[in-house]
Each structure stands twice: as C-alpha cells, then as structure tokens.
Design a protein that fits this description.
The strands form 2 sheets. Strands 5-4-1-6-7-8 form a 6-stranded parallel beta sheet, sandwiched between helices. The protein is built from 9 helices and 8 strands. The chain folds into 2 domains: 139 residues, 3-Layer(aba) Sandwich (Rossmann fold); 59 residues. Helices cover 45% and strands 16% of the residues. By secondary structure, the chain is an alpha/beta fold.
Amino acid sequence: MTIHLIKPKAVLFDWDNTLVSTWDVLHTAINVTFEKYGLPQYTLEQLKLNAHQSSREAFPGLFGDSWKEAQDFFYENITLYHLEELQTMPGALALLDFLTDKKIQSGVVSNKKSSMLVKEIDFLNWSPFFGVVVGSGDTERDKPAPDPILFALEKLGLKASPDIWFMGDTIVDWQAAKASGCQPIALGEACAPESDVPVVSDCHHLLEILSDLL
C-alpha cells in the first residue's frame, strides 16, 4: 500500500506495543487473574486478539460483578514487575528524538491506567518528549471513543485534522483516530487494519516517512 500523508503538526502515539513492548507482562498478569477467577487461560495469540479495550471496559464482560476486584488484582500483578520488564520498541527512541529535534509536538494516548502509564514514562526518562499524556480514566470514555485524543489535542492547543497523526497497533487506535478527525497510522504488518489506514512496519519506518516530509 502506497502511503500518502500530510506533513504533521503533531504525532500522537498509543503506548503498549507501540512505543514499548509489554505483551509478556500483560500475558502473565491476565492469566494469573483468570486463574484466580476460574477462567480459561489465554494464549499470547488470544491476548493479542482481545487486548483492545481498556480494563474498565473489558473486565465487566469477563468478570461480571467482580470486575473491579479483578481489575485491582490484575494491576497488582502488573505492578510487581512491569518496570523491570519494560522494553522499548525498535526505533522508538530515535523517532522521539527526531520529533523533538524538528519541534513537532508529540503525546501519548493510551488505554492503560493513567497512573501506571505515567510511571512507565518517567521510568524511561521519556517525559520531556511528550507535551501531553492521557491514560484510561482521564476522560469519560477510553479508545475507541475519540474523547482521549480530543482531550490530548486540547491540552496541546491543537484542533483535530488530517495533519495530526495517531499511531497505534490495534483497531481501537484507528477507530479513535478516525472518529476524532485525525490521521490513523497502523503499526505492524500483521495487524490487518482497514484498507484505508496506512501501515508502517515499525518506528524506523515512520521515521523514514517523516524524514522525507520534514
């Protein structure tokens, strides 16, 4: 697919498995939680297929009336080791350095619990890269609703438009970007996005595109 993009005023990113790799941490935490509540275990492939919604939206369907308790248990398990196992995605740091050098605003819009998201960004010393960080709970609705993206843009003093890029690895990212009026960009050839969503293979690929435009 040929990628045609407008020079961006800002680039917003999903967090998990877009700028950092967290599948192993999420896989362990969800299966420990499933075991506690007598649910069948997920394979890693099943997790990747189902891990699109935030926990506050997905857990009521999984755990019923016990979803808040299950959510607390899930996050307790992630908290045990999420920082020591946090890994950056290939090319992510170079991409963020480039955006900073070119004075292109950037931010994070994630369905991860806001307090944990900020902790991970601080741990990597990446806070200076981002003009805004929005996590689950910061707006009334999480992605795929456009609310978090629109909230982030408000904080940056920008309006939604095709020259605001939003890159993420799951369908809720592209749906949220479209609903907000921004340009969705899908990360990863295996993600099979809708046909009108440009796909980049990794952060290095997006950096190459940006280098040609800026």
